[in-house]
Amino acid sequence: MNTDVTQNLVAFRVRGEDDPVIASAPTRAEDALRQAWFQIRQERQVRPGDIVAVYSEWEPSGDDLRFLATAFPTAEHTYSFPRPAPGGWDEAFAEAERVLAEKAAPAPELMPVLWSASSPQAEVLGSIPHHPLVPGRLSVALAHVGLTPRGTLGMRHVTTHAYQEMGSPPFGRLMAEAAANLKRGLRVTGHRGDHGDLLHLTREDWLAASALALDDFGAQMARNLGEERLVVGLPCPDELFVAGANSGWAETIHEQTLASEYDTTELVPCVVLVEPRGMRLLAERQA
After folding, report:
1. Which residues partner with 53 through β-bridges?
2. For 43-52, what is each residue's pLDDT tens digit?
3. What is the pTM of this model?
4. Number of neighbours of residue 278 by Cβ within 10 angstroms
5. Residue-wise pLDDT tens digits, 101-126
6. What is the reported pLDDT for 107?
């Protein structure tokens, strides 16, 4: 996909060939298609009569339409973006960039999202199906998460209304789908030192801290660390630190988590104790 809207990509489809031949020229040029065809003729031995279709990202100018009608009278002509009136190029380029970014962005995925009861937005939980991790203190809900056309993180929470529109499936079934999405790209980095082992969880696409809500989180981390009782630091939604409760990392996890400068949204930076019988909130950053 051509992301430089100031360059008009032109594709010529040649009779008998599977792939088109492609060239580009300045989008604003009145003879952009003629320039593109000149490039093709410099690179290949192809005749105008061999061209069965011409695609231009931008609508051809009047001059180029006359060129197309003369050079390729039987070829199909198509384009994606309308050519603006003089003086309208900046606005047209901005709209084209928005459209291209929207097409390039991956579809939103269902993801687990951690919610703190002390979050400034906690009242929203009343209209969002959720499951408690630490009753009365920390929960997990669901949201469709992906890139916006501007390249920022977009999150659309699964509200009670949306949940009902989905047919009110078992929450556990949706959570399993969200967990599978979360696990893709989840990275675990180990650090060894005098204090014992420390694990750091991250993801390329955010929300690594939501790994705390995975069914097998405690068992998997306990196997990796060789200890059943774990201290977990959640400094922000996008990373998680975990170490054995009896290791020398517990105090460091506390300090670093509570010193987090993350701007609170759904999750308030906190430290959680994970053990076979459940979870307990050990500390939480104060407002």
Report:
1. 13, 76
2. 888 999 999 9
3. 0.66
4. 11
5. 777 666 789 999 999 999 999 999 99
6. 77
Q: Which residues are registered as beta bridge partners of 236?
A: 239
Cα→Cα distances 262→82, 238, 267, 287, Å = 43, 10, 9, 11
Q: How confident is the model at residue 32 (pLDDT cuts 50, 70, 90)?
A: very high
Q: Cα–Cα–Cα angle for 62, 82, 3, nearest 5°?
A: 115
Q: Above pLDDT 70, what percent of the chain?
A: 95
Instruction: Write out the two tokens for 71.
Output: 């050079």
For 234-264, b where at least 16 C-beta lie within 10 A, e where not — what string?
A: bbbbbbbbbbbbebebbebbeeebbebebeb
Average pLDDT (172-180) is 96
CATH class label, 7-104: alpha beta
169, 128, 176, 135 alpha-carbon torsion, rounded to 10°: -120
Task: State the average pLDDT for the chain.
Answer: 93
Do the beta carbons of residue 114 and residue 128 sit within 8 Å?
no
| DSSP helix/strand/coil, 127 | helix
Domain boundaries, the chain: 7-104, 109-182, 185-284
Cα gap 191→184, rounded to integer Å: 22
pLDDT at 194: 79
Both tokens of 68, joined, read 């197309």
Question: CA–CA separation, 106 vs 217, rounded Å?
Answer: 27
Q: In whole angstroms, what is the distance from residue 214 CA to residue 224 CA?
A: 16
Contacts of 155 (CB under 8 A, 6+ apart): 113, 143, 144, 145
Treating both helix axes as pointing N-terminal to C-terminal, what angle do 32-43 and 62-71 enclose, rounded to 10 degrees? Answer: 40
